[in-house]
Amino acid sequence: MEKLKFVHLTDTHMNAPGADNPFAKLNLADKVKRVFAHIEAASVKPAFVVITGDLTHEGNVQDYEYIRTIIDEGSSLLGVPVHVVLGNHDHRAPFREGFLKEEASEQPYYYSHTIQGVRLIGLNSQVKGQHHGEIDAEQLAWLEDTLSTPAENGTIVALHHPVLSINGMPGDHVLANREQLGNVLEGTDVIGVVAGHVHTNNVGTYKGICHVAATGTAFGGEAAEDNHFKIVDFCGYNVVSVYEEGITVQTVVMPGLQEEFFRFPVEALMAHN
C-alpha cells in the first residue's frame, strides 16, 4: 500500500530578474512556476516537495530572497512544505542570509524532517569552489546517529551529487566519497536517495538502495557526437511514491521545444571547477 507521494525537483538555476549571468535571460524561475502549476493541475497531491540543489546559478543574497518568494508561492499553491538542499552553484552564506533569513555562515546546511512517518534527510554535498561533491565527516557522524533510530515509514535522503555514474559524464560528477556514504546508509531504514547535478534522469541501486538522479527544471544535458555534451531546453520532475517495500519513480516531462541551447567538449566539462 502506498504510504505517500513526494515530488523531486532539481537544478533550478534561478536568479532574480536582471541578474548578470548567461542563464538569467532564460527566465528559469518561470519554469519552476510552471512546474508547480503543472503539479497542482495534475492532482499529484504530494506530501512534500524536495529540490536537490543548484537553486541558483552563482546567486547572491538578492537572488536567494527572490528564490524564496518563488518557492513560497509554490508551497502555498500545493499546500505542502518545500525543502531544499545546496548544490555546487549555490553559496552557503548568501543562502542563509537571503533564503533562511539567518546570520550569514559557511556552515553546511543539513537537516531531518518527518512528514507522515517518512523521514526526509537533507545533506550538503557541496564543496566550496569545486564541481565535485563530498559529505563531510561532521555530516556522516550526524547521519549515522540519526539513522540509528528508524522512522515509521522509512527514510529518504536528498543531496545534490549522485552516487551513480552517468553515460557521457566525467567521473567528478558523482559523489567523491560515495562508498563512505553508502556504508552509513546500508542496513538502515533508507529506502531511497534523490539527487541532481547531472541534468538527466538516472535510476539504479547502490548497496541495495534505490538512487535517483533527476533532470533539471532549468535545462537537460546529454551526450552528443564528436565527444561533446549538449545543453537542451528541457524541463521535468519526478513523482516518487513510497511503499512498504521501497519506492517507485515516475518521470514527468513538461511540454517544450527541447531545442539545443549550446554544446561544449567533454574535456571542458572535466576541467570545470
From TrEMBL:
It comes from the Bacteria. Residues 4-200 form the Calcineurin-like phosphoesterase domain. Keywords: Hydrolase, Iron, Metal-binding. Pfam families: Metallophos. Belongs to the cyclic nucleotide phosphodiesterase class-III family. This is 3',5'-cyclic adenosine monophosphate phosphodiesterase CpdA. The lineage of its organism: Bacteria, Bacillati, Bacillota, Bacilli, Bacillales. The gene is cpdA.
